[in-house]
Write a structure and sequence with these properties.
alpha+beta, Membrane-bound Lytic Murein Transglycosylase D, Chain A, three-stranded mixed sheet, three-stranded antiparallel sheet
Length: 591
């Protein structure tokens, strides 16, 4: 970065919604500090690069706290954005808190200034939030952000002699040579850096996630696949200890590449009082999926662009609505809740209305998952998910169903289920089936079972549903009849590939129609007398013996299940560090 001319202190400037008029004598003092900050180009450039990396995190915290963005420059003044900075009076970390003051604003400090125990003064998220809370509290008493910022150095009692009643609640204020030196020095930092921060493109950014409880930094790094040395400098707050259970702790993750993301940790540590035994559903290590852009700073999250707040154990809708700054009626409406429904610890609840569509095109329903849970996961109103998928008001979704989240499924497009899920989801229904006469028709197979929507009468008694299977193909003319006994772990798709036939053929020949396979079942297979040298390859999804082309809505977990390999195998064979996929991406799925 080429440095331009040293900025000159203006006669007037904006700060925290106030217009400051700076006298000539004050400008002279401030200018001396500005010149000093620009004296070493190397140091100045290093500090700008540091600010570019950390300021987006500080800005997000300040936005959540309703705190003036201008004050972020105070972090440079206090510590040079250094988590291990320690003053002569034992003030520690990014915002130079003393232990007692840090604990007063809710930061956990277990040991001394140089201890390896938990110390949130060294956490950029927690410490920034603490600084915002401290000055916000003082501003309520002083009625002026200039005085509130000054109190960060002098304390609330020490600043009183500098307070002028005429400036309480004022929109304009004169800054002269008698203004406290701490605030004059702050203005110098703001003027010196303001024109340079945020101008360059970084190849790294910081991502914030809730740290997984009960794990130390070494274990976390192993889980994320990041060098411990790279993580340590951004997470000095954890020391050598394990993440406590008492509340969510923000984890800072350095990430290379603009806009890249890490898999989101399972929300297994959002309940501060149940020692990690929350009933909140968690995500397995092989099923880490990024459904939305989600930046978790403390208990506040953003899902599908909508602000939300996580519930702690024992909280009700009235209390959470109050914390979110909205009425209880709005809170219930935004989250499709009834007044008597309890809140779920760890679940995110929206503070604004959910959207009509999600950022993701498709989603496969997991075991035991309800439509409400899908609605909350993606920030889409439940009624619009029903409308896009032609679901009736009280119709229950089954495991494995592929839901449309962005567009409306055409009525002529059959409902689709993930093949592996159908085995468990449909066998329990004891569905009667009726089949059509075979059609000589070649179809593209997507490793899903298709079924037409069936008009269901909403009555008190249960009715059995007839399913019409469409994937029927004509039996081969020149065939040999083979009986195949189903072995443990075998799928319809695997058996069809073994004999070079289509899954739909096996379904029709054995009258399966979604009833699934059981170990020991005997299947009739009509094998062409001249067996092909290689198994028949599917036309859409399977590109070759060893490769798979990613389709819209597919996840790494689904692909691994399909080819009966692990997610780790696919990541290793394709040199991938995470589970993120792109439509059209080719993956090696055989060793």
């Amino acid at each position: 970065m080429l440095l331009a001319q040293v900025p000159q202190v203006p006669g007037t400037m904006e700060f925290a919604g106030m217009k400051l008029q700076i006298t000539k004598a004050a400008r002279k003092k401030i200018q001396e500090d500005v010149n000093r900050l620009h004296k070493s180009p190397k140091y100045f450039q290093a500090m700008v690069a540091k600010a570019d990396l950390f300021f987006p995190v500080i800005e997000q915290v300040f936005k959540e706290e309703g705190f003036p963005d201008d004050i972020k420059y105070l972090c440079i003044q206090e510590s040079a954005i250094n988590p291990t900075a320690v003053s002569s009076s034992d003030a520690v970390g990014y915002w130079q808190f003393k232990k007692a003051t840090a604990q007063e604003v809710g930061l956990r400090v277990d040991g001394g200034p140089r201890s390896s125990s938990i110390d949130e003064r060294k956490n950029i998220v927690s410490a920034s939030r603490g600084a915002a809370k401290y000055m916000t509290k003082n501003n309520k008493m002083l009625g002026n952000w200039v005085y509130a910022l000054t109190s960060y150095n002098t304390g609330l009692g020490g600043v009183q002699k500098y307070v002028k009643d005429k400036y309480r609640g004022a929109k304009k204020m004169e800054i002269d040579s008698h203004t406290h030196w701490y605030f004059l020095k702050f203005l110098a930092h703001k003027i010196a850096y303001e024109g340079y921060v945020g101008k360059s493109s970084l190849n790294q950014h910081l991502e914030i996630q809730n740290a997984p409880v009960g794990k130390n930094l070494k274990q976390i790094c192993r889980q994320l696949g990041i060098a411990e040395a790279d993580m340590k400098q951004y997470n000095e707050w954890l020391g050598t200890k394990k993440v406590p259970y008492d509340k969510p702790y923000p984890l800072v993750i350095p990430r290379s590449g603009v806009g890249a993301t890490f898999p989101v940790f399972a929300d297994n540590n959002d309940d501060p009082v149940d020692n990690g035994q929350s009933e909140t559903s968690t995500t397995s290590g092989e099923d880490l999926e990024v459904h939305n852009t989600q930046v978790a700073l403390g208990r506040n999250v953003t899902l599908n662009g909508i602000p939300a707040i996580r519930a702690y154990k024992g909280e009700n809708s009235a209390r959470l609505a109050l914390k979110g700054g909205i009425t209880r009626r709005r809170f219930l409406r935004y989250n499709d809740l009834k007044s008597f429904e309890p809140l779920k610890a760890g679940q995110a609840y929206y503070l604004k209305s959910k959207n009509r569509k999600a950022e993701q095109e498709f989603y496969t329903v997991k075991k035991g998952e309800t439509l409400w849970e899908v609605s909350q996961k993606f920030g889409v109103k439940e009624k619009f998910i029903r409308k896009r998928n032609h679901l009736r008001r009280h119709e229950v979704i089954r495991e494995g169903r592929v839901l449309w989240l962005n567009n409306t499924r055409p009525k002529e497009e059959p409902v689709k289920y993930e093949e592996q899920k159908v085995k468990e989801a449909l066998v329990k229904e004891k569905l009667e089936t009726k089949t059509k006469e075979p059609k000589v028709e070649e179809k593209k197979v997507e490793v899903v079972v298709e079924e037409k929507e069936v008009v269901q009468e909403v009555e008190e008694k249960e009715e059995e549903v007839a399913i019409e299977v469409k994937n029927e193909v004509e039996e081969p003319a020149e065939v040999s009849v083979v009986k195949h006994t189903v072995k443990a772990g075998e799928t319809l798709y695997a058996i069809s590939r073994k004999y070079g036939v289509a899954p739909a053929d096996l379904t029709k020949w054995n009258n399966l129609n979604g009833s699934g396979l059981n170990v020991g079942d005997e299947l009739v297979v009509y094998v062409p007398r001249e067996m092909p040298e290689e198994p028949v390859k599917e036309k859409v999804e399977v590109v070759g013996e060893e490769w798979h082309e990613v389709q819209a809505g597919e996840t790494m977990y689904q692909i691994a299940r399909k080819y009966e390999v692990s997610v780790d195998d696919i990541r290793q064979w394709n040199n991938k560090s995470d589970n993120n996929l792109s439509v059209g991406e080719r993956l090696r799925v055989r060793k």
